[in-house]
Amino acid sequence: MATCYRHPSRETGVSCSSCGRPICPDCMTPTSVGMRCPECARERTRVRSLRTGTDEPVVTYALIAICFVAWLLEGSVGSPTRIFVDGALFGPYIDVKHEYWRLVTGGFLHATGTQGILHIGFNMYLLWILGRMLEPVIGSVRFGAIYFTALLAGSFGALLVSPDAVTVGASGAVFGLMGAAALELHARGVNPFQTGIGGLIVINLIFSFTFAGISWGGHVGGLVGGALAALAFQQADLRRSRPAGFIACAALAAAAAAGGIAVA
Which of 17, 76, 171, 208 is catalytic? Predict the structure, then answer.
């Protein structure tokens, strides 16, 4: 394995996206075009870590706002409205009525009634935590791409396990952000289990398989989709091919959507 050009005793699998020199976590400067060494960054980009991002996570805030508005419009604490009925993920309607939009809209709706308050509250809290941690580091566009890839992967997973169940919630996409955050930490030489991310993934997976009424297929699908999307961007940076990451995400999203339609 290559060693950091500034710290020869440190092995690393990451290279500067500009000059190609190997760099360790202490020498990495996140930019909109990938990781760069201190010289190539030329101090135009502030050094940030997953725990000290300073840019405003605008996509995170927008997603939270959309989910809350959708929850209010769908009936929130009352009876479900047509928005819930026509937007929830439901395999038979995707199959028979070809209502393919449900693959996406189901990820922006949440349960109604008292249970719905806990459902959307917990999901939006995790989205807020993960978004403020991840979006400033990888950039808003990449963050959005990972989120929607994970959302579709979560829909695929939910339909694969329970195609006849009505499924709603941002959990699949949120699990995808957990997977992406773990990959980003690992790329920087940080063990995810030395932070809260590793434990968060394990605990939520245990809950997914333990309690009834939780779409474990959606959670696992989202986790895998988000991790693969983050890995695609990391590999694109290593190859200094920025478009490749977005092309890979588009391919993953398309495959997840096609898989969801097939198993519906």
Answer: 171
Rounded CA separation 245/32 (Å): 12
Q: Supply the angle between the helices 140-161 and 216-238 in degrees, to the nearest 10.
A: 140
Determine the pLDDT at residue 178: 96
The DSSP secondary structure of the chain, one letter per residue, reads --B-SS-TT-B-S-B-TTT--B--GGG-EEETTEEE-HHHHTTSS----TT---S--HHHHHHHHHHHHHHHHTTTTSS--HHHHHHSB-HHHHHHS--TTHHHHGGG----HHHHHHHHHHHHHHHHHHHHHHHHHH-HHHHHHHHHHHHHHHHHHHHHH-TTS-B--SHHHHHHHHHHHHHHHHHTT--GGGSHHHHHHHHHHHHHHHSTT--HHHHHHHHHHHHHHHHHHHHHHHTT-HHHHHHHHHHHHHHHHHHHHHH-
Q: 116: buried, middle or exposed (CB in 10 Å: 19+, 13-18, 0-12)?
A: buried
- HSE at residue 212, side-chain half, CA atoms within 13 A, is 0
Gap between the Cα atoms of 155 and 108, Å rounded: 11
Decide if 219 is catalytic.
Answer: yes
The alpha carbon of 116 is separated from its chain's Cα centroid by a whole number of angstroms, namely 22
What are the tens digits of pLDDT across the range 54-93? 468 999 999 999 999 999 999 876 678 899 999 999 999 9
Amino acid identity for residue 9 in this structure: S
171 as an active site residue: the answer is yes
Q: What would the two tokens of residue 242 be?
A: 């920025």
pLDDT score recorded for residue 23? 86
